[in-house]
Amino acid sequence: MSGAPRPKDRPWLMRTYAGHSTAEASNELYRRNLAKGQTGLSVAFDLPTQTGYDPDHILARGEVGRVGVPVSHLGDMRRLFQEIPLERMNTSMTINATAMWLLALYQVVAEEHGADTAELQGTTQNDIVKEYLSRGTHVFPPGPSLRLTTDMIAYTVNHIPKWNPINICSYHLQEAGATPVQEIAFAMSTAVAVLDAVFASGQVPEDRKGDVVARISFFVNAGVRFIEEMCKMRAFGRIWDRITRERYGIENPKHRRFRYGVQVNSLGLTEAQPENNVQRIVLEMLAVTLSKDARARAVQLPAWNEALGLPRPWDQQWSLRIQQVLAHESDLLEYDDVFEGSHVIESKVATLVEEAEAEIERIQEMGGAMAAVETGYLKARLVASHSERRARIEAGEEKIVGVNCYESTEPNPLTADLDTAIMTVDPENEARVVSALHTWREQRDEGPAQDALGALRKAAVGTDNLMEATLRCARAGVTTGEWAWALRDVFGEYRAPTGVGGAPVAVATEAGPLLASVRERVEKTAAELGGGRLRLLVGKPGLDGHSNGAEQIAVRARDAGFEVVYQGIRLTPEQIVSAAVAEDVHCVGLSILSGSHAELVPDVLDRLRTAGAQDIPVIVGGIIPAADAAALRAAGVAAVFTPKDFGITEIIGRIVDEIRAANTLPPLEVLV
């Protein structure tokens, strides 16, 4: 049928998750990306900023500017958004425990730009539950964390009404092993906990409940299983519509709409044959854009080389162009929902809805999401799901091209020079950031800063909304670490359950001859050394909270017969070495994905030598470039494992080999 072309829908917001080194360098990157056609900003903060530490804190060592931009005070935020019109920008900030602080800094800078804060648009992630479960940048216990979230939602609804104060984030749940059902159920349970708390606080009038619900957004993961992922988005929408209508009485369908942004899957990006990541990214993007009735409001894509290290600007540009080609060259935006009426889709959606609602009910019976965090139920379920997935990959049941099948390959021109295939952060950057922080503290007016911190502590002890006191701190030149420590003084800190102890055995001896062989070697080595079972300390030094790999090593080592010492995330090298000596371990395994390995691993080695424990072998796993791996081995690391080493049982076997070598025991035959 001929005629005039159909009008196109407006494209989704196109973002690139970015930030590194310094506020100045990140500002330059943002302005370049906007000039290339990016339509929104997505700010990546470094780990000290995310976890409430200043760059000169001991735990910040090696982490400053690595995985995002350091923002220590108002001056940094000014430089980060210099020459960017905030009143016309849609800014997403991936920030959780310190979300209130970063929003306050953003608001003050916008005011300095002359912007009307009521017109500011953007999102703060602000989902603390998933931090306890998967990403590890939590600071405070669940109760105070929920209060910070509640206060921020109430404040934005009343003062920054176009802002999304929370972005309930199932993305990292999938990265931590969640099935689609778990991803839906855990995210929805978090939303219920947050909305219940906001409405119970009495800070929002009854007639504005719809305004609160309308500002709740979600941040979702899209994996490579296209049909399942697209159906998951439709199931999300149906369940959200039911919950908001039945539980909260929201009648306006616009308020009930499931609004979500997406970063497609990073868990599935491979170090082996990384060029295959491009088609993975495209397929995953289609799952959240093809279906009009369940289309994402904002999309950000990882780069093809993120399993290797930090993407370069050109790599990020490639991911932006993927979105632009789909939106502007194809006819995707000219049609209604192309899956409407499909019996296959409808059946899959109905199944996901039924199973997710059953899991939501189970969590509610436990007392809700916060209670399920504190008991360890949610974390244990994720660790178990991830263990099962890894077992399927190792058994070849779940195929990953280039990893466990079709492994032969031609030389890759994209990675011919690995040292230039990724971007690296200048190791001298941290010292410059620390020096600038000291200058800021010296030049500020100390009286107002201390008065503001005192007012913040007083508000935290009481029941006042914490946003006003936080804004006062921002204007007075308080630093990120000072703001967070003032609240730590009142609320305390929190170490979330690791989930390792509650995870079931993932690989049975009968089904895994390799694991049976490794168990036999563990038992034989322990007998030869005497003193009971072999003991492995799994440690995560620094601020990297991505603990999935460490947890899987801990679970598989336990299944192989090791006694595992695993205290969770965020430890100093001194604490790790002290534990290794106190527990008399046979091996130390360090997991670091943030890029701080060059600083932290040598520190652990030096402290082991000082403690007279230099004979304990140290192994390291993480996203570690080849040149860095060689340097670590030269420094005394026994073995380095990267994402291409997907066989966890083989890694455990290698740990046994290193223990034997360190204790001058002869090698044992390996069953292949």
Task: Provide a descriptive summary of the structure in words.
Mean pLDDT is 92; it is low at 506-511. This protein has 672 residues and is α/β, with parallel strands linked by helices. The N and C termini lie far apart (63 Å). Helix 8 runs parallel beside helix 10 (226-246) and helix 16 packs across helix 22 (548-559). The longest helix is centred in the middle third of the chain and has 23 residues, at 343-365. The protein is globular, with a radius of gyration of 25 Å. It has 26 helices and 15 strands.
Total beta-strand segments: 15
Shape annotation = globular
Structure classification: alpha/beta
Helices, by number, come to: 26
User: Would you identify the regions where 5 or more consecutive residues have pLDDT less than 50?
Assistant: 506-511
Distance between the termini: 63 Å
Strand content: 5-15%
Rg on CA atoms, Å: 25 Å
Mean pLDDT reading: 92
Which percent range fits the helix content? 40-55%
Question: What's the story with the biggest beta sheet?
Answer: 5 strands, parallel
Strand order of the largest sheet: 1-10-9-8-7
